[in-house]
Amino acid sequence: MTVKHLTTPISDADIAALEVGDMVYISGEIYCGRDAVLPKIVRMTEDGSIAGTGIQLEGGVIFHTAVSPAGVGPTSSNKLEIEASIAPLSKAGIRLHLGKGALHSETVDALGKYHAVYAVIPPVTALLGALTQEQKVVAFPEEGMEAFHSLKVKDYPAIIAAAHGRSIYDD
């Protein structure tokens, strides 16, 4: 295991250098979404309506979470709506998906195909709150805490769980 520091936007070279089990610290802007908004973001990428919104997916990070007054913590990435968003959002430029739980092998393969990785993040709301410098709603405010948020973070900790067709959950 190696420790790496990533700053958004994340480059293809950064992704190529990551291996399953690497510890990463992520800084910069990351997006937050889960069941309610990720399918909407996928539709926006497919129909082109994401253009002009200010949402920049290329080299981006999506954290599978809601943003509440209590803070942020990972939700299960293998929920149907969330896992179904991983391949199309990777194709649209997202390079790192943050969440928790094992992904299906088809999703792991899609990550490799689109030069993206998946990392698990510890469910430590207090720590993550201390590492969040700024937060704002960027789309779907009607969804409340499940709106699509942007966070500015410094050294968010995560462990690479799927990269280059391999998963930490494989036997």
Description:
The mean pLDDT is 92. The chain has a single domain, classed as fumarase. The radius of gyration is 14 Å and the shape is globular. Strands 2-3-4-5-7 form a five-stranded mixed β-barrel. It is built from five helices and eight strands; from the N terminus they run βαβαβαβαβαβββ. It has 171 residues and is an alpha/beta fold. The longest helix is centred in the middle third of the chain and has 12 residues. α2 packs parallel to α3 and α3 packs parallel to α4. It is 25% helix and 33% strand. α3 links the parallel β3 and β4.
Per-chain topology:
Layout: E1 3-7, H1 12-16, E2 23-33, H2 38-47, E3 60-64, H3 80-91, E4 94-99, H4 105-113, E5 117-120, H5 125-130, E6 132-139, E7 148-163, E8 166-167
Index terms:
171 residues, fumarase, five-stranded mixed β-barrel
Proportion of residues in extended strands: 25-35%
CATH C-level class: Alpha Beta
The number of domains: 1
CATH fold-type name: fumarase
Which sequence of SSEs, written as H and E, runs from N to C? EHEHEHEHEHEEE
What would you give as the CATH superfamily? Fe-S hydro-lyase, tartrate dehydratase beta-type, catalytic domain
Query: How would you state the average pLDDT, rounded?
Result: 92
Rounded to the nearest angstrom, the distance between the terminal CA atoms is: 18 Å
* Strand numbers in spatial order across the main sheet: 2-3-4-5-7
Largest sheet: 5 strands, mixed, barrel
What's the β-strand tally?
8
In the predicted model, the low-confidence regions spanning at least 5 consecutive residues are none
The tally of helices reads 5
CATH architecture: Alpha-Beta Barrel
- Given helix and strand content, the structural type is alpha/beta
What Rg is obtained from the alpha carbons, in whole angstroms?
Answer: 14 Å
| Helicity range | 10-25%
Instruction: Indicate the overall shape.
Output: globular
